[in-house]
Structures are given as structure tokens and as C-alpha cells.
């Protein structure tokens, strides 16, 4: 079987044109990348931001992504042959490796070159989120906190309106976001009203799932976001542990809570190619419809956002599961792409 990324299929004219665009864009920014980090970068980014009318961060993140890629010879060679990595993916790598010492770079180069190499036919390229998760697993779970640690800021944005900003561990932020979204959905109110209700203690109990691998003690969200030790103390007082049902078949149409939790931990977001709508906004879909005899089991389940669920129901796109969590999609004209799951319960974020 020939393994390749769907977007790199040069028999497809649209893929050929996209490659040219990607290459042109990459080469455009590459010309402006300074040879040394530091002050030269700031100056180059500021100059270009002026010329192009982009923010300095927009420019800096692109220059930096290419600078970091140049420190990764294996990945650079792979990119030069496949042109599979666009700027969101390159920037995810650049950002994650920004503080990695030079001596450590070969290890990351090796890891990324293996992770970002196609393994299946018509495969989708791992998303920026999947790349971030893979790299995150390589670092100490409790890095030096940014200064100031755990802060809450507010500032006016328009007459009568203000913005609230919070810095905390990624796991805590994701949990807070999920709780606000869940309450807003349940009570049919805005997210700001949901937060206000929480602050006033007027809320019903909200269940949030966090996950621990049997082989390790680390607790994360479904998407792999980590908590710091203080957050874990808070979780420990409230968490009830249960085993996830991964290989059973449920009776009836509805997915029982522990199977739902397992599907969310495997998929993390919508399984349609390049859709990253979070589990919270997704339905659990029977890949083979229940009415056609599809079982209510993990191997026949996937997360789909409402939009992509409707596309499937209206038979504008079709899909098939390999039973291991990989979903192959195809359009009515026969174009195919296979997506791999991205959650903590999948192999996709395990080091290859
Ligand atoms: Zn979707």
C-alpha cells in the first residue's frame, strides 16, 4: 500500500496548485528570516509589519517558524519533498520549540520527521493541535510558570463593556471554558451570564471529564491539556474515578456515559477532515447508522460537529471506520481522505 498525504497527491490538479501557493508563501517569508535570533528578528518583523500592514506578531510568528524549521534538517528535507506543512502547522512547531536548547534539537527533529511522515493511503496531515500535543508530551509537565503566575486582568473595550483575561494552566483554562460553555448551553444564556451565575453560586452541578492513563499518574483533559500540581489538588477533592468502556457494545441507540467519555477522549474533536470543533459542540455519530444495523460501540462511533453530521446524513459525503478509530471519508466524486483520532486515548499523539 502506498502511503501518502491526501493534500500531497500530485495527480490532483487542486493539490498541485495548493503546493505552488504554499511554496510561494513559504519562500516569500523565508527571504526575510534573519540568521540570528534576538534583536535582528524584532527589527526585521517590525519593518515587514510596516510594509505589509500586518501586526508584528503575525510577521514574527512566520519568520520564527521558518527559523526553527531550519534547525530541523530531517523535517526541512521532508517539507522540501512533500510541502505538506502549512503555516499554522509550522507555527505550532516554531512556538513549541522556541525555548528548546540547540543540543536537544536533533531529538525533536527525529520525532517530528517520523510523526509528520505519511503512514496510510490518503491520510490527512496531523493538525496543528495534534503537533502541539505531541510536542507538549516531551516537556516537563510543570514548566517554569510565566510571570505573573495565575493572574486575572480586566480592561475596558468599549463604553459600558470590559474584557476579562485570565492566565492559568492549560488544563484549568480548558476546564473553565468547558464548564462555562456547558452551563450556557444548559441554561440557554450567554457565556458571560453563565460565568456570572457561577460567580454567584447559582449553578447546578456540572460534570467535566478529565482523564488518567493507567500507565501513568498524569491527569489531562480529553484534548491532552495538562494541569499544574495546585489544580490537581483541587481536582483530587472532587473527582470520582471510573473505568472507561472501550470494547463493549451497548444495547439501544444511546451511547452510555462511560462510552461517551471514552469516545470523547479518543476523538477530542470533530472527525471530519481538518475540522477541530471541540467535543462539547459535537454529536456522537454511529458511523454505520443504527437503523442499518450499526452497533452502539466505540468502533462504530465518531464525534461530528452539527454541520458535518448533517453533511453525512444528507449523503453529501460518506465515511467508513476501520474499527481502530481511523475514519476514511469520501465525496460523491470519489476523493478520499483518512483522519486519525487526536484525543488522549488515541495512538496519534503517542511518540511514533
Ligand atoms: Zn466538523
Automatic annotation (TrEMBL):
Annotated Gene3D superfamilies: 1.10.30.50
GO molecular function, one term: endonuclease activity
Keyword terms, alphabetized: Endonuclease, Hydrolase, Nuclease
Name listed for the protein in its UniProt record: HNH endonuclease
InterPro entries: HNH, HNH_nuc
Residues in HNH nuclease domain copies: 258-310
Amino acid at each position: 500500500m502506498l502511503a501518502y498525504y491526501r493534500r500531497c497527491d500530485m495527480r490532483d490538479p487542486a493539490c498541485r496548485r495548493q503546493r505552488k501557493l504554499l511554496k510561494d508563501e513559504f519562500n516569500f517569508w523565508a527571504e526575510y528570516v534573519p540568521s540570528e535570533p534576538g534583536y535582528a528578528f524584532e527589527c526585521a518583523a517590525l519593518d515587514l509589519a510596516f510594509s505589509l500592514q500586518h501586526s508584528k506578531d503575525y510577521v514574527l510568528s512566520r519568520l520564527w517558524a521558518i527559523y526553527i524549521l531550519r534547525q530541523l534538517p530531517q523535517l526541512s528535507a521532508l517539507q522540501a519533498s512533500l510541502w505538506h506543512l502549512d503555516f499554522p502547522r509550522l507555527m505550532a512547531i516554531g512556538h513549541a520549540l522556541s525555548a528548546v536548547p540547540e543540543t536537544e534539537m536533533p531529538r525533536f527533529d527525529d520525532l517530528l520527521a517520523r510523526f509528520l511522515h505519511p503512514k496510510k493511503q490518503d491520510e490527512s496531515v496531523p493538525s496543528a493541535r495534534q503537533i502541539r500535543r505531541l510536542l507538549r508530551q516531551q516537556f516537563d509537565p510543570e514548566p517554569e510558570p510565566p510571570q505573573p503566575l495565575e493572574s486575572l486582568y480586566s480592561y475596558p473595550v468599549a463604553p459600558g463593556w470590559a474584557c476579562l483575561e485570565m492566565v492559568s494552566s492549560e488544563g484549568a483554562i480548558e476546564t473553565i471554558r468547558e464548564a462555562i460553555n456547558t452551563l450556557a448551553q444548559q441554561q440557554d444564556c450567554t457565556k458571560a451570564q453563565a460565568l456570572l451565575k457561577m460567580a454567584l453560586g447559582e449553578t447546578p452541578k456540572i460534570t467535566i471529564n478529565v482523564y488518567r492513563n493507567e500507565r501513568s499518574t498524569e491527569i489531562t483533559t480529553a484534548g491532552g491539556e495538562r494541569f499544574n500540581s495546585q489544580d490537581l489538588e483541587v481536582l483530587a477533592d472532587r473527582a470520582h474515578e471510573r473505568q472507561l468502556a472501550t470494547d463493549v457494545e451497548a444495547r439501544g441507540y444511546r451511547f452510555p456515559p462511560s462510552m461517551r467519555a471514552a469516545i470523547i477522549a479518543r476523538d477530542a474533536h470533530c472527525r471530519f477532515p481538518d475540522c477541530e470543533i471541540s467535543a462539547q459542540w459535537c454529536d456522537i455519530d454511529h458511523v454505520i447508522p443504527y437503523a442499518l444495523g450499526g452497533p452502539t460501540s466505540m468502533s462504530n462511533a465518531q464525534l461530528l460537529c452539527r454541520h458535518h453530521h448533517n453533511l453525512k446524513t444528507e449523503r453529501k459525503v460518506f465515511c467508513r471506520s476501520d474499527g481502530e478509530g481511523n475514519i476514511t471519508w469520501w465525496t460523491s466524486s470519489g476523493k478520499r481522505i483518512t483522519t486519525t483520532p487526536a484525543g488522549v486515548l488515541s495512538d496519534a499523539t503517542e511518540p511514533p
